[in-house]
Amino acid sequence: MTKRVLLLGESWVSSATHYKGFDQFGSVTFHLGAEPLVNALKGSEFELTYLPAHEVVEKMPFDLESLKAYDAIILSDIGANSLLLPPAVWLHSKPMPNRLKLLRQWTEEGGGLMMIGGYFSFQGIDGKARWRNTPVEDVLPVTCLPYDDRLEVPEGFSAKITGDKNHAILRGIEGTWPLLLGANEVVLKEGAHVLATLPDDEGGHPLLVTGSYGKGRSIAWTSDIGPHWVPGEFIAWPGYDQLWKNCLSWLTHLDNA
């Protein structure tokens, strides 16, 4: 059975100034960060729709029925403002539906929501992701900190598996996980199910957490899906593809668990 998945975020634009003696010029580069996940899901039972961050602002659905076309929605490295401030609101002061509240209702009625970590996930760099105290945070199995929540681990860490290895999300993933280079720090909610954490010597912070909200399910993965927190060795690891397929199977009840 094919399940439809909507991925929101994972793109950015960078601007650089190049100085060459007396002269200088500027350049602008567009970056996509979701290729590893897109490739992981190719040929699977998951039909992926990918809205890069700049398209989310206007193209993410503004009504519940349109959201219900998707079985799972992934928020990855995109701040709350991109959903709260479409041009109609930001530029023209026109009232518009609150898409954070729509995501909460969509999950409550049976959707599967996942937030993946990054500089603009959870509370994010300088606290600018702003997911704390939002309707989306209500759905997640974790709460966000009120300040910059990044855990930078340049030497790398290997996930500590704390959940049952027969859990649908961990099934088929064997051996030691390759190194990750960072994550967002979050606080567990009561009743959340922790499947993996950072090592004890890195604070034992949550890495992979599941929860439920109404009829729906939610997952928090506090590291990223690609560089820089996720090195190439992690992406090339067979468990990488399996992890995302397992997460989406669980979110969409394909696992029947």
TrEMBL record:
Signal peptide: none annotated. Coiled coil: none annotated. InterPro entries: Class_I_gatase-like, GATase1-like, STM3548-like. CDD domains: A4_beta-galactosidase_middle_domain. This is Putative cytoplasmic protein. It comes from the Bacteria. Pfam families: GATase1_like. Residues 4-252 form the Putative glutamine amidotransferase domain. It comes from Ewingella americana (strain ATCC 33852 / DSM 4580 / CCUG 14506 / JCM 5911 / LMG 7869 / NCTC 12157 / CDC 1468-78).
